Amino acid sequence: MNKFITFEGVDGAGKSTHLAWFSDVLRQRGLDVVVTREPGGTKLGEQLRTILLNQAMTIGTEAMLMFAARLEHIEQVIKPALRAGKWVISDRFSDASFAYQGGGRGLDWAKLTQLEQWVHADLQPDLTLFFDVPVEVARQRLANNVTLDRFEQEQSDFFERVRAAYLKRVQQNPQRYVVIDAAESLEQVQQQLAKILATL
Ligand code: TYD
């Protein structure tokens, strides 16, 4: 049965690299895999992404634009692909809104829950991989990047709150998540992923 899988983590956790490897393994099995990302994934969503990553705005606006991009993404990309029997792997989904806008920026959790109910009451990922890494390690990895977006420019305390909010989401709904120790080497993380792939 095809699945909807999301990848989450603080910036610098390495999830995008692992996502590419994970999707390749599924494709090598002959599966039809759609790889996508948030914010983004549609033409409008990518335009919203450019705004969200570069333009300062009120917290509520930031949250609503994230969910606006998500609604497009769900209706135009995720649901049609799932209906067609394809696997969908998304680099971030609503957990990121709870973590960044809720944890990082301090937006009321209940407001995010309302947006989530509005935008996708009938859809949740089958599986979410949370790439967990100490914030210092993530910060060191990001230090190699030439340009940093509006979120990546935040300080360590922001990312501590983001990480704590992710872990709160994991605790609230443990059956949906696998927590990956992303502080390990690339090969060791791939071994963790291989174990998960063996169950799919
Ligand atoms: P990401 O794709 O990880 O950036 P990169 O291309 O640098 O790997 O994510 C973009 C940023 O958007 C990231 O800092 C987290 C943020 N974000 C939110 O704040 N809320 C959300 O709901 C989503 C999906 C992302």
Main features:
56% helix, single chain, 200 residues, binds thymidine-5'-diphosphate, five-stranded parallel sheet, alpha/beta
What is the topology?
Layout: E1 4-9, H1 15-28, E2 33-37, H2 43-54, H3 59-83, E3 87-91, H4 94-104, H5 109-120, E4 127-132, H6 135-142, H7 156-172, E5 177-181, H8 186-199
Parallel strand pairs: 1-3, 1-4, 2-3, 4-5
Helix pairs in contact: 1-8, 2-3, 3-5, 4-5, 4-7
The structure holds thymidine-5'-diphosphate.
**Biggest sheet character:** 5 strands, parallel
For the termini, the CA-CA separation is: 9 Å
β-strand number: 5
The proportion of residues in beta strands is 5-15%
Helix run count: 8
In spatial order, strands of the major sheet run: 2-3-1-4-5
Structural class call reads alpha/beta
Helicity, in percent? 55-70%
Shape: globular
N to C succession of SSEs: EHEHHEHHEHHEH
Mean pLDDT: 97
Report the uncertain regions.
Answer: none
Q: Taking Cα atoms only, what radius of gyration do you get, to the nearest Å? A: 16 Å
List each distinct ligand once: thymidine-5'-diphosphate
